[in-house]
Design goal:
The structure is a single chain. The chain is an all-alpha fold.
Amino acid sequence: MLNELNTFVKEMDVHGGVQIIVLEHIEETHWVDLDWSDFILLIASCARTMD
């Protein structure tokens, strides 16, 4: 699936703009090992509290 996303982003690049794709619960090593230049890995932490 990750290679298909990379292909999609490259194909859409000719149209300009920005693609925002959110994938949760994917290990950082998946992205680092692929070394894609068109993707930026953002790591966010969200703590939920019950009030």
